[in-house]
Amino acid sequence: MTDNASATLPAPLHDDDRSLAQRIATGDRAAFELLMRRSNRRLYRLARAVLRDGADAEDALQDAYLSAYRGIAQYRGDAALSTWLSRLVLSECLKRLRRQARRDNIVPMTGLPPENESDTMSASTSETPDAALARGEIRALLERKLDELPEAFRTVFVLRCVEEMNVEETAQCLDIPEATVRSRHFRARSLLRESLARDIDLAERDLFEFGGAHCDRIVATVLSRVVSP
Fold first, then answer.
1. For labelling alongside 179, which of 39, 130, 185, 212 has CA 20 to 30 A away?
2. How many structural domains does the chain have?
């Protein structure tokens, strides 16, 4: 008797990834472009979290893509293609950090102000300028606080909270135990809360600040309305 049970089973998880990888391996540039476009946002965020510099993150991402293109024939589908790419990006980032560390040991770097990164994400057309400004300031604060975290915590936080990877995917991507992912994620969130709380405490003292020109204007207006006895 013929067993038809296998006909009803779902396709293996990474069949689509293997198919796309095979197309790229044969020189299909359209397939490679598709892979980059659907991966760019996530992989850039990962590189940016590790390197803490937008331009360096772009360079690392480009080099990782080139490595992926050259080595795509070795992809066997043991992990998701997104995980495979993430590992390449992390490897490229770590190489850059090691090179930078060697340069810093030879010629100590002076403290340079960080470059302003242009906002590549357009705000909603229905958003008011004030709301867009406020949202941008909040995002800049979170990015600054995230940059202050140790690299191990920062990377896990981005994968888990920003890219919304689950614990298993994050562990595969970083090649660390799932328990380590959980502990680093918890620690990253705790450190961020503590850091943000300190800033909020300082800001509370300046709420509804009233001085300088405001004070002068009120005084002048009242005095102008005072009727001399």
1. 39
2. 2
